[in-house]
Structures are given as structure tokens and as C-alpha cells.
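Following up on my earlier thread - several people asked me to post the actual chain instead of describing it. Fair enough. Here it is, all 255 residues.
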Amino acid sequence: MKKRTLAKTVISNVLYPVAALAAVIAVWAIVAAAEDMPLLFPSLGEIFRSFGELLGDGRSWLVAASTLGRVLAAFALSTAFAIVLSAAGAFFTPLHRFLRPVVTVLQSTPTMAVIYLAIAWLTNAEVPLLVGFLICFPLMYNTCRTAIDGVDGELLEMAKVYKMRPVDRLTGIYIPAAFPIVADGARSAVSLCVKVIIAAEVLAQTKQSIGLEMNKLGSLFEVADLMGWTVVAIVLSFLLEGLVALIKKLWEVRR
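Reply from S.P.:
Thanks for posting it. Predicted structure:
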């Protein structure tokens, strides 16, 4: 039974992702060979050469670290606000009713509109942080509310009967039940945060950022180097998703 479970885990977590990546690479290789336009469709060799040069350049690491810092800051702020406000709304229903239309408006607002408004209001360095927060907060808030609403009602009734303190209910019932759902939502939110932060950096011309590097290369039609930075962004997303998945796994093991 354990061997079968291990095999399923390896297939779902390793084989399928590798197969999907291989399919994407194969499609790009076919298109590049068919078009035979290296300036617009560089070969895989050119793309990975560019990626390798970025890895060997200390300045590229600083650029990637700056963007990563903005992603982490925006994601941490949006997650913290979402957890606090959703938890408060669970105990004080009028707050949730007040926040629900606000969250809906934020979720429905086009990303480009958010970016342009942020550019009008803030400095170039502050724009990505606000955009990342405004885009990720609704997703995390709804995820937290779903997790809270999914808590076993019988456990809550039992907590009332035994007059458990709010702190004990929070640590003994709500957090254990909600954490796995919140962690799954965080995996999607953190990848989205990477994309919107970089998009905001492109339009805001944020100094020392992946977005600014992409904007420069795009204007010069340096597609191979642009794809190199794209690979960097994808790697960052995978690493952050993997970190969230690891935290969830460690939580489950400790439970």
C-alpha cells in the first residue's frame, strides 16, 4: 500500500510536471525550427545560453532579488490583511458584509487599470507593491473565508458547550482546519503575485527590476535575452510555490 502511494506521489509531483515541461519545450523547438526566424523565435540553445549568462552575472542576481523582495513584501502584506480581516469578519458579521463588495470590486478591476492608477499615485518603486497587494488580497481573502466557512460546525458547537476561550478555538479548531486550504490558495496567489509585480515593473519602469530589464530587451527585439529573463521569472514562481507546498507538508507531518 505504501509503495502504491509513493508511486502515485512521484507520478503526480514529478512525472506530470516534467512531461508538461517537455511538451512546452518541444512545441517551442518545433515552432522555432519551422519559422526559421532566429530573431523572433530563437532556438532553445540561444534561450538557455542567455539564461546561463544571467546566472553568471552578479548584477542579474541583484535584479532578481529586488523583484523577489517586492513579491514577498506584497504577498506577505496581502496575506496578513486577508487573514486578519477574514478572521475578524467571522466573529463580527457586519465587517464581512462591508468587505464583501470591496473585495468584489478589487477582484473585478482590470489589472492594467490598477497599474496605471498606481503609477499616477505613487513613485516607480512603490507601484509594484501596491499592485501586488491589490491583486492578491481579494484572492487570499476569499480563500481564507472559504477555509473559515468550512470549519466543522459540530466542533464549534462543542467549543461553545465547553466554553472554550476564543484563543483556544482559534488555535485548536480554526487554524488546523483552515491552514491546508489557505496554503493551497497561497500557491496560486504567489505565482499570480510574481506576474503582476513584473507587469507593474514594466509599466512603471521600476529601477533594478526584472520588469525593467524585460522592457529594455523587448524594445530592442532581443527575444533570446527576453526569454532568458522569462525563464528567471518562471523559476522564481516555481521556487515560491515549492516553498509554500513545503510549508504545508511540514505542517501536515507535525500534525
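DSSP finds ten helices and no strands in the chain. That should answer part of your original question.
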